[in-house]
Amino acid sequence: MKRFLIVGSVLLIAVAGLIYSGIRLGDIAHAIGLAGWGIALTVFARYAVTMLLAYASWVIMPPDQRPALADSAAIRIVRDTVNTLLPTTQIGGDIVAARLMLLCGIAAPMAAAGVVTDLFLQVVTQFVFALGGTLLLLQLGASESIVRTVATGLLIAGPTLIGFYLIQRLGVGTLIIGALKKLAGGKEWAAFAATDAFYAALARIRERGRAMATSAGVHFSAWLLGSIEVYVIFAFMGVPITVAEAIVIESIGQAVRGAAFAVPGAIGVQEGAFVILCAGFGIPADAALAMSLIKRIADVAIGGPGFLFWYRFEGRRRDGAV
Q: What are phi and psi of 125, to 5 degrees?
């Protein structure tokens, strides 16, 4: 209940901010209406991105310890659904994903190691994507204040990535295991009593260098493909934008959203970031907010099947399939 109150409060503050800033809700609705079929194309692009991310998480798993590719796709959809639509922090979906892999017959240590490795590759490639977006931002001649803010964020993110790597290399990974045991529940997770099994699984995944490189490449391709969402939405709205500008908006917007992992769905944070970034390219605030809301529509389009898949996975447990 507390989380719902927090989300509701954020929404109320966001609406109040819109009214105070002079941005009319009618203008936003009009901009969304102009997008038309662009919304459908955005949803299609989002599904393509999701399938790429599903493959990226699947390919790193050892052949004898990976779910069926179709199950991996369904798990990724559920993972994104939990992270974007439920009032949890943006890592709740990762814990649910580990649980669903368990229901697919994957050993508990390997399921956890797979999710942790995939999350690490996701964060690293997003950082590289954001770095590329920042370099593009400089080349496009953005204002110094925006560039300075983005660069500061990247400087903060660097040590975070190093810390994430050390967590996997050192014994601090026990904290992750403890969180999984506590939040996922179920007697199946008693297998985590042997912490060494988790690190053995992690080492087994990391030693598959080609698979790791493939996964990183697919992750990066997914982030680039996500830029199409921004380009298509603005193109259908009649807002002039270049591919380079779309990449900048998407890359830095995703970085801001990832940094706000403690905020459910990054509600308000994503919208504010897009308004600031788009303003740097002369895009009106109402169009920027409309673009962000259309991205939220794509989240919901993923979420519908996501809840259904989650229910079906849990049905396997009820039916005694695992």
A: -70, -35
Q: Give the pLDDT confidence of 80-137 residue by residue, as tens digits.
A: 998 888 766 566 788 899 989 988 999 988 998 999 899 889 888 988 898 888 888 8
Angle at the Cα of 190 (from 186 to 196), degrees rounded to 5?
A: 140
Tokens found for residue 168: 């996997």
What three-state secondary structure class fits 263? coil
Per-residue pLDDT reduced to its tens digit, 5-56:
444 444 444 444 444 344 455 656 766 777 778 889 999 999 999 999 999 9
Return the structure tokens found at 315. Answer: 């049905």
CB-based contact 226:254 (threshold 8 Å):
yes
Say if residue 68 is exposed, middle or buried (CB neighbours under 10 Å; 0-12, 13-18, 19+).
exposed
Q: Could you tell me the CA-to-CA distances from 158 to 169, 213, 316 in Å, in that order?
A: 17, 20, 41
Kindly state the tokens that stand for 95: 């814990």
Q: Indicate the length of the chain as a whole number.
A: 322
Q: What sign has the CA pseudo-torsion 285, 286, 287, 292?
A: positive
Rounded to 10 degrees, the C-alpha dihedral 245/247/253/259 comes to -140
* CA-closest candidate to residue 8, choices 264, 247, 307: 264
Tokens of 133: 């977006």
In single-letter form, the type of residue at position 263 comes to V
pTM of the model: 0.79
